[in-house]
Amino acid sequence: MTGEGLAGPDTTTGDDSPFWAGAREGRLEFQHCASCGFVRWPAAGVCPECLSRDFAWRPVEPVGTVWSWVVYHRAYSAALRERVPYDVALVELDCGVRLLTRLTGFAGGDDPVGTRVVARFEELGEHGRVPVFAPAEEGTDR
Fold first, then answer.
1. 101 and 23 in contact (C-beta within 8 Å)?
2. What average pLDDT does range 15-43 have in this prediction?
3. Shared domain check, 39 and 69
4. What's the domain range around 30?
């Protein structure tokens, strides 16, 4: 599957297409195992917990905690060139998924590790609408 005509990243397998479709509509969706309920990311054909092949894509609450963080001083996407330097974090969502994402709404030099964050969705050039995370006390603008 290609991303031609879609507002999202080009995916070669299509396994993560429902994730990007959800992001375009302002929500986070992940695979949930139909047998044991395990929430998995990245998308996979088999549950790593119970080995079931049955799953459904369902939305999750877009809140979590910053687990790790770094400042990028180089734009790894042309759409981010004007935002250098920018914060990137590993956010552990309340559903258990860890998502590598961009942070917004933090003052320069602040260490966001341990901060509660909420997803917002921004247009990011050729990537389409993507989730980014901001401090939870700023609201839940999805």
1. no
2. 95
3. no
4. 17-59
